[in-house]
Amino acid sequence: MQNILFFQSLWAMERRDPDGFERSLEQNVAMIVDASFNGVSAHYTNRHDVALLNDVIKGTGLQIEGMCFPTTVSDIHESLRLAEEFPVKHLNVQPDVQPRTVAECLPIVDGWLDAARSSDVPLFIETHRDRMTTDLFFTLDLLEARPQLPLLADLSHFVVGREIAIPVREETQLRLRRILENAQAFHGRVASSEQVQVEMSFEHNRPWVDLFLEWWGYGIQSWRTRAPEDADLVFTCELGPKPYAIADRNGIDTTDRWQESLLLRGLVQEVWDRIASIR
User: How far is 192 from 209, CA to CA, in rounded Å?
Assistant: First the structure.
């Protein structure tokens, strides 16, 4: 039976408020466990930090999405070694290199995927600003060259990067659906044409919330037709702190991002349940 698993980003647990207070890793993990998340998203680039995280979550049942930011083919090896020693649900690559042509990208992407296959670690390439996948059109060109490229879809970066407006043009819808047809997992936040992360609970942002739910629904439906019957789909709630989060004049977030993460999880669960009920 296919399932959806909800992870919470540890980066998104940072407060960054003017008072300077930050919860400990143990406190953040306790909140995530108490809220019945299935896992966490965390950097997998430093052995000390990875070992500490795995020690803290021991016995909780939480799984891990490992995050890494390679600039070369060889950069991926340390994260893969960590993922073998401290198992992950998958490794998420933010490709921190921006060649000018697809042809220059292919040896790098192929090298990462070959290394992951040798390590037997699932590896996905995230769509993200200031990365190889920063631009929607360039990423579509990558998919033309590598039609099976496993993506982790974070659509917020395309929406703000290309200032995608409502109503969305049909050709833009088709382009985003092509991205979603390769999505193996999701990072979730709601963007607008001018902001990478808007307040989901504000009524004036509801059209953007509905638009993203529509896209995620398409992506979920596509994934369900491609994935094995016993597969898990990971959706990570990733409502980042400032400067992702909008703040007031005092530097305080305009909403409680933790509560908005719970709202996001509930809305996506409803989308999943609706699609599962009609399959």
Answer: 9
Pairing of strands 3-9, 39-43: parallel
- Helix, strand and coil percent figures for the chain, each rounded to 5: 45, 15, 40
Reference 12, options 34, 38, 36, 43; nearest CA is 43
Contacts 24+ apart (CB under 8 A), 201-210: 201/255, 201/259, 201/260, 201/263, 202/255, 207/166, 208/166, 209/267
**89 backbone dihedrals φ, ψ, rounded to 5°:** -70, -40
Name residue 193's amino acid: S
In single-letter form, the type of residue at position 92 comes to N
Angle 230-214-176 (CA atoms, 0-180°, nearest 5)? 90
Please report where in the chains the tokens 């409803």 appear, as a residue: 270
Q: From 4, 10, 2, select the one nearest 239 (Cα to Cα).
A: 10
CA distance 13 to 10: 5
Tokens 């200032």 — which residue? 163
Non-local (6+) Cβ contacts of 2 within 8 A are 224, 227, 228, 229, 230, 231, 232, 233, 276
Structure token pair of residue 31 = 């909140």
Query: 139 — phi, psi (to 5°)?
Result: -65, -35
**pTM of the prediction?**
0.97
pLDDT tens by residue, 14-67: 999 999 999 999 999 999 999 999 999 999 999 999 999 999 999 999 999 999
Q: How many other C-beta atoms lie within 10 A of the C-beta of residue 122? A: 17
Q: What is the pLDDT of residues 111-158, one digit of tens each?
A: 999 999 999 999 999 999 999 999 999 999 999 999 999 999 999 999
